[in-house]
Structure formats: C-alpha cells, structure tokens
Amino acid sequence: MSESTLQKIGVRVQELRKRQGLSKTDFALMVGISRPYLSQIENGSANVTIKMLERVARGLDVPMVELLK
Fold this sequence. Notes:
Layout: H1 3-19, H2 24-31, H3 35-42, H4 50-60
Helix pairs in contact: 2-3
C-alpha cells in the first residue's frame, strides 16, 4: 500500500477508536496486538495486512471498507 493510503487508514482507525472512547491500550488488548503496533498503524508507518485490517475493523465494529473512507 502507498504511504498516503496507510496514513489515511491510520487516521481513520484513530478517529473511530476515539469516537468509541477506547484508549490505545484498551483497544490493542481487544484486538490482540501490542500498543506500539497500534501506534504504528495509527501513524501510518505499519504496512498492515488485510487480515489485520479485518481484525481492527471487527474490534471497532465497522465494515473493513469504513477504514478506507
């Protein structure tokens, strides 16, 4: 994925997580990833897989496509 796409996804993940009132620590535990990895996703520096996007979307209770908006 391009850097701009990864950054866009990261911003959206952070926005949705905050909207649900979840801390990075709590959300990372929910999804089964480390807090530093969640930070990398949110700042666009992690080259996330489709499987990871599915896990994150499930944790946020949104369709995966919602992360791409």
